[in-house]
């Protein structure tokens, strides 16, 4: 999202993420969106951008360099306009369906010509479920179909997802799940080498230091013991390819109508974040959903972009973003303009169901920043 650094390196012709792999419950509590706020959001597949609409902001501006990601968002917007909640779950792939092509045809009149062309050329993706068709989701599909059966039988997987009490979860993980096969094959499949070629773009690891698989393995243990897999839609999708007993925020039935009611407050732009900030026409941003974009940037470029974000805000504006493998947080040189909300961020990170992130950062602009 910092144009000078990302454009030469990353292929933006395909869907990289067909879902948002960040926990919107954590995001919304961090940002504390109020009616009338103006929000800026990294679009990704659109789920968390749409979740922000449920809080009644005056405006949500979604930004992405990848037109394929914005096609994901636009189709979701059309689905919220046209479909019922159960039909939305079918189109995404959360639940089984044999009518996804029919559902897409109903959504199609709400799409721009360019996005119609994009999805018309991908009938197999529609039939599969639009939440399954990103590079990252296919990476998890490969793990689920080819690697996981070498580690655990289906009854063991079902037992994992059943959850239980804190003690039951810890005992199950330590005594039945955490085998030598699990540790060995997990470390191979989630290594920097394999993930960079099958899951994420290799350039996304440019600023990562140290081991990758070990950190993700530790976070996975936390998600299956300290947190309850029965309440975790991200864990359920990785292990089953659908949502079984839990849904992410934007797909829950109680949030469907609040999101639909505010769709007209949403706009989206295919451009870099720094270009948008340079040409924002005086708009003041109250809340920023920044995904994990900073760890793909050099520290210098991250600091430059952070300065622009602060200048576009006001006293009380909040920034929320994740670190997965590269550490990013406000530099001391910006201490007079941006303060970390560390206690809130730590509490939310402990509850983060999208468990593979090593850190969650919440920062607030205050007087003198703009």
Arithmetic mean of pLDDT: 91
Gyration radius, rounded:
20 Å
Categorize the overall geometry.
globular
**What's the CATH topology label of the largest domain?**
Rossmann fold
Spatial arrangement of strands, main beta sheet: 3-2-1-4-5-7-6
Given the helix and strand composition, which structural class is it? Answer: alpha/beta
Tally of strands: 7
Just name the CATH architecture of the largest domain: 3-Layer(aba) Sandwich
Proportion of β residues? 5-15%
Concise structural overview:
The chain is built from 19 helices and seven strands. The protein is of the alpha/beta class.
Quick tags:
19 helices; 370 residues; seven-stranded mixed β-sheet; Rossmann fold
Textual characterization of the structure:
With 370 residues, the protein is α/β, with parallel strands linked by helices. Helix content is 47%, strand content 9%. It folds into two domains: 3-122 and 249-365, Vaccinia Virus protein VP39 (Rossmann fold, 3-Layer(aba) Sandwich); 135-240, no CATH class. It has helices at 3-6, 24-31, 47-53, 67-82, 85-92, 100-107, 113-120, 123-128, 135-147, 154-162, 166-177, 180-189, 192-199, 213-225, 233-240, 253-261, 273-278, 299-311, 342-350, and strands spanning 38-42, 59-64, 266-270, 287-289, 318-323, 338-340, 359-365. A seven-stranded mixed beta sheet has the order 3-2-1-4-5-7-6. Helix 3 packs across helix 16 (253-261), helix 4 (67-82) packs across helix 6 and helix 5 packs across helix 6. The longest helix has 16 residues, at 67-82. It is globular, with a radius of gyration of 20 Å. Mean pLDDT is 91; it is low at 204-208.
